[in-house]
């Protein structure tokens, strides 16, 4: 499945400072759909290069990270259960605190 | 120490009031003078409190008395001016009389002062503003917490637009390293209160609003200040104040515009709009609805650590002012915008993106009906925001024997006769290393070495012989990353179980600059 992943707010520093990743995620074991839970696992193994604890906590993202699927908060689409579709854009953004 | 001489220009400035001066300009000058006076008074009390008042004590007191007297005189003078105008003896009075005459004959009294029509004319003629919008602005009061990179531009636009009352809260002083982005302060104000500095600059832009200057830090115990305002702008720079300000906005039932910026990116949200106290069905989310738990402290970077591009934080501050006036001018029957987060990325393929975010969380610990956070609990100080957000562990991660002071390091490299062969590893990031570095040092950025997996990667990058006994010294900007590096090199076995010394230079280049080489740049 073709997806665009974007990292912002400093999370890109965990993946070689690359903000936009065009990826192809294979569905596991003839599964019919890809959920955000699956994607997080995949991202952790395949995209995050260092300090995974700065990205995830347990099986979700760490506090202070917003996840947006097609410009919409994943809270509105079912969080970990959100089902992804071909060409979806998933944004991971860490909150900033400077001023 | 209070600089007595600084008070004199204020006084001189005030002594030159002429009959031809307009009342408004005199009022503006008195306001300015008063602000300068208040600032010096606060400074004076502060000095007094901290017991550092020296031989200038009497002198300062006399000057302050003099100025107080002068101020009273000027107020009387102004009053007299007002009564003279009614007798028609001054030019200003003539114009005033003409206005009055016209109004009785041709129209009802104008809703705004003539000066306001002129000053706000360019926005008044817009359908988004008009008379209703301007009157809403005039009736509004905005508390700006933080007079820095966000607060400066935000406050300037709100003052210019004619917000009725503007509060500025900040306990910091202006530093020269602020001036590339905190555009309302200037070099002459370095070392003085940011809140007072910003207040003075705003009075010069527009003397008409009321300004309340709070030259101290926000803490739960003084959060009652929000009671006097109809909106808050969060222009601060750390998670603990963001949660505190959100809770303040919730308990006082006022909307909040929260923004932040770091490096090349910024984020902004309008929260608590409309506030919970109104129709709770329609109430907007608070900061805790969006971020119920604070980020781990090690993930939080400040502008001092991560850096910040001036125009980036400027854009965010300007957007804050924009969102604030949009909320203030919104007619009561118009619904609020759905909750969203605007992200700005100066180098992104799309500079601006608006993301729909979740609404109010029905079980939010701050804004739901079963909250334990009340105005009383907030002001009593029972909410510990520092503890809630956590702090980084103390920076001394290494034992004393693994650390060397800059003094000892200096005498080691300067030792005459038998110089000690060693490797100095500088682990700052590339831009910092390029700013200033020591001849012969080896540069390996911490972000890179943190990912080393075996000793070979380390020996290659450092060009060292694994069998050598030459000590390795590690240095960074402030002495934190260098300690972590020492541990990392040990984990990789570079120290061969203690056979080779790997030492951290305590306090980094900052300590070196302070104690050894004053020609090393401070940045
Ligand atoms: Zn809430």
TrEMBL record, chain A:
One of its GO terms (cellular component) is cytosol. There is a cross-link at residue 99 (Glycyl lysine isopeptide (Gly-Lys) (interchain with K-? in acceptor proteins)). GO terms for biological process: protein urmylation; tRNA thio-modification; tRNA wobble uridine modification. Keywords: Cytoplasm, Isopeptide bond, tRNA processing, Ubl conjugation pathway. The keyword Zinc does not apply. HAMAP family: Urm1. Acts as a sulfur carrier required for 2-thiolation of mcm(5)S(2)U at tRNA wobble positions of cytosolic tRNA(Lys), tRNA(Glu) and tRNA(Gln). Serves as sulfur donor in tRNA 2-thiolation reaction by being thiocarboxylated (-COSH) at its C-terminus by MOCS3. The sulfur is then transferred to tRNA to form 2-thiolation of mcm(5)S(2)U. Also acts as a ubiquitin-like protein (UBL) that is covalently conjugated via an isopeptide bond to lysine residues of target proteins. Belongs to the URM1 family. This is Ubiquitin-related modifier 1 homolog. It comes from Carpinus fangiana.
Automatic annotation (TrEMBL), chain B:
Its main location: cytoplasm. Pfam families: Rhodanese, ThiF. Residues 418-521 form the Rhodanese domain. Zn(2+) binds at residues 286, 289, 364, 367. It is found in: Cytoplasm, Cytosol. Its EC number is 2.7.7.80, 2.8.1.11. Residues 57-84 form a coiled coil. Binds 1 zinc ion per subunit. ATP binds at residues 149, 170, 177-181, 194, 237-238. Pathway: Cofactor biosynthesis; molybdopterin biosynthesis; tRNA modification; 5-methoxycarbonylmethyl-2-thiouridine-tRNA biosynthesis. It catalyses: [molybdopterin-synthase sulfur-carrier protein]-C-terminal Gly-Gly + ATP + H(+) = [molybdopterin-synthase sulfur-carrier protein]-C-terminal Gly-Gly-AMP + diphosphate; [molybdopterin-synthase sulfur-carrier protein]-C-terminal Gly-Gly-AMP + S-sulfanyl-L-cysteinyl-[cysteine desulfurase] + AH2 = [molybdopterin-synthase sulfur-carrier protein]-C-terminal-Gly-aminoethanethioate + L-cysteinyl-[cysteine desulfurase] + A + AMP + 2 H(+). Its cofactor is Zn(2+). One of its GO terms (molecular function) is metal ion binding. The active site is at 303 (glycyl thioester intermediate), 476 (cysteine persulfide intermediate). GO terms for cellular component: cytosol. Keywords: ATP-binding, Coiled coil, Cytoplasm, Metal-binding, Molybdenum cofactor biosynthesis, Multifunctional enzyme, Nucleotide-binding, Transferase, tRNA processing, Zinc. It comes from the Eukaryota. GO terms for biological process: Mo-molybdopterin cofactor biosynthetic process; protein urmylation; tRNA wobble position uridine thiolation. Plays a central role in 2-thiolation of mcm(5)S(2)U at tRNA wobble positions of cytosolic tRNA(Lys), tRNA(Glu) and tRNA(Gln). Also essential during biosynthesis of the molybdenum cofactor. Acts by mediating the C-terminal thiocarboxylation of sulfur carriers URM1 and MOCS2A. Its N-terminus first activates URM1 and MOCS2A as acyl-adenylates (-COAMP), then the persulfide sulfur on the catalytic cysteine is transferred to URM1 and MOCS2A to form thiocarboxylation (-COSH) of their C-terminus. PANTHER family: ADENYLYLTRANSFERASE AND SULFURTRANSFERASE MOCS3, UBIQUITIN-ACTIVATING ENZYME E1. In the N-terminal section; belongs to the HesA/MoeB/ThiF family. UBA4 subfamily. This is Adenylyltransferase and sulfurtransferase MOCS3.
